[in-house]
Amino acid sequence: MTNSIFGVGASPPVSAYSQQQSVRKEKPVSEAVETKEWKPVSEKSSLIPTVKAGYGTTVGDVNLSDKAKDYYAKLKEKFSGMDFILVSSDMKDQVKACASLYGSSGKPVVLIDDEKIERMANDPEYAKKYEEVIRSSMLKLESARNSLAATGASIKNFGMSVDDNGKTTFFAVIEKANEAAAKIREKNLAARKAEKAEEKKKAEKEAEEERIERLSEKNREFLEFTSESLEELISSVSKYAFSSSESMVIAQEGIGQSIDFKG
Question: 11, 13, 33, 247: which has the fewest C-beta neighbours closer than 10 Å?
């Protein structure tokens, strides 16, 4: 596999795994950062991780030699602070194209193919080099976690891919600003209606709020930001979050105007 993926963030439900769609410009965004829509796929997709006895979490039909299987077990033990996902060689290109699918709720995720594990098990120098990549990636992701949290954006997951030459590509999946603003407007509209209808029973008001929340969740949309520069990625997410926060203030104040985030 050309790339190995390191990702952290909110762990999505199985049905929330996505395929990267056509590139689409959003405002504002650095020219060095690419944005893609993040859409769900069927929970029956072959991209969805499963658990295989003796291997742990896998994508595809993985198979290792006894030597590689033993090495893989020791590798996971050495980096117990990370979650590993083993990918079969025939699935590596599909998985590489959908790196942002594999964010975790807590630990960084290492996505690695069985061919690479076989090579690491039989080539100590290569194993040493790649293990150092894993170790250094943990530090970079911790820095990214803190920086992205400071942007104020609604982060679903984030991570980085590393190729065999050490080149890194960072990604972050965030909730689209217009969807977040729409959620606020819907909630505020329900609150105002409730205030003007004091005779309405409490149970009816709660049911309405739950209905609005369900509709909002169902219609949530996400963007994926990718860049070879962590600084550029964080800067673009920050600018996007700042731009959307101004629009959300308008939504919170109940000003009835249309907001175009793509202008």
Answer: 13
